[in-house]
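User: Before I run my own analysis I want an independent prediction to cross-check against. Here's the chain; please return only the structure tokens and, at the end, one sentence I can use as a sanity check.
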Amino acid sequence: MHRIRTEFKYDPKATVDLHTARRGVRERHGVCQDFAHVMIAGLRGLGLPAAYVSGYLRTIPPPGKPRLQGADATHAWVSLWCGEEIG
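Assistant: Structure tokens:
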């Protein structure tokens, strides 16, 4: 996670729906979905069960600005199973 955060560049123009983890590692730029796929591949490579999660962000806009809704506020996360004790 630290390496993705420090070595990859957020670039919304760099991604497409079919962007693969392999491409993400090679190009080192993209958006949250790309970073999630790279992280999932790494975690699974270590034998850890990980899954892709997507949803909507609830934004708190600055005064006078509209709240983002729908596609403007989508996000991707990684879910990692850490065992029965932690979940």
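Sanity check: The chain has a mean pLDDT of 87.
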